[in-house]
Write a structure and sequence with these properties.
Distance between the termini: 26 Å
Number of strands: 18
Radius of gyration: 22 Å
Order of helices and strands: EEEHEHEEEHEEEEHEEEHEHEEEHHHHH
Largest sheet: 7 strands, mixed
Oligomer: single chain
Structural class: alpha/beta
Strand order of the largest sheet: 9-10-8-5-11-12-15
Number of helices: 11
Strand content: 15-25%
Shape: globular
Length: 425
Amino acid sequence: MLLKVFKNTVLFSIIIGISLVTFSCGNSVKRDVESSALKDLADNGISTPYMVNNEVDKPIIVGANRTSTYLPLLKGKRVAVVANQTSVIFKNQGYTHIVDSLLSLDVDIKKVFSPEHGFRGTADAGELVKDGKDTKTGLSIYSLHGKHKKPTKTQLEDVDLMVFDIQDVGVRFYTYISTLHYIMEACAEQNIPVLILDRPNPNGNYIDGPVLEKKHSSFLGMHPIPLVHGMTIGEYAKMVNGEAWLTNGVTCDITIIEMQNYDHNRTYSLALRPSPNLPNDQSIELYPSLGLFEGTNINAGRGTEFQFQRYGAPFLDKNHYTFKYTPIPNFGSKHPKHENEVCYGVDLSKVKAERHFTLKYIMDAYHNATDKSKVFNTANFTTHAGTATLQKQIEAGLTEAEIKATWQNDLDAYKNVRRQYLLYK
């Protein structure tokens, strides 16, 4: 069955289908897994039509949909939830928010913690978000992108268990993994277990980019991982524990509700924007590469409907570029770079995006700037890149291949560490 979800004018498709085959006695373990998958789908109102062949891939079942697995863990507990607009349980007529679903199942939710962009996902990137109340449920919402980035001891006094359910996109400077770090640290300090409902990484099929240098740690990158890290939220949580990255080496008691039918090479279209300026698959696949423009004075599509699908600036050579656009305030960008100014650059909205990381866009912009001194916002670029070396390499005129070669030893070392924490192929 093809389920079409319309959200913010973006069409996404979720393919729901299970191939049922006859099992022999020797396949009892596989039968148990399939039965569990079918039960989770059925419990959440998702039909499972009979397929006479196995030509359709089995659907990815996200952790949140595996209610029969984790609801017993919530019974009798005072629960807090870390969530945003992506924290949903999929159903055959769309989806329901995890908070609404758990409340309907009589789970005792005490409060909600929200990451960057807020609980409903409407705040600009970097915008401070205030605490408040959810108008639908009346629950208190505590922002982790405002006065506090880490829950306080007082906020956790009436919590027995923390649920973390947020869709990530697999890029180091996408701050949801930093929020995960602080949640794990705060809960470890208060002896509160964390239940992680895992979701796919849409950029999870590769690893690339410079590995963060410790001296450049920030909320945009807290740990020595590459710019594109190739892990799900659950796998990353295992690494945070295993590598003793929490303050004073504390370890968080985590339980991960794994996905079913997922591996790192499967493509996955997000049904909802993970943040205001990632509206579709094209933007998500280009984000690792175009996200570096956030550390420059070049606009990366904010203030248009093609966020992270174009780049430009008034100081890029208008004789070189045939494409131009004018950023204006809009949803997710109240004050975009070069607001109301004509920007010259490149439109990538219709190119075939591939899931890989490249420097060619930022190098192209630098080499075609009429005033190269205007390109880099040096401190911010270093924070995004995780190293001060990359800007110097671009300015020195090194090729992409030459720059990437300097990362290889660090990437190889990271891959060896990462391998210990993988939950999926």
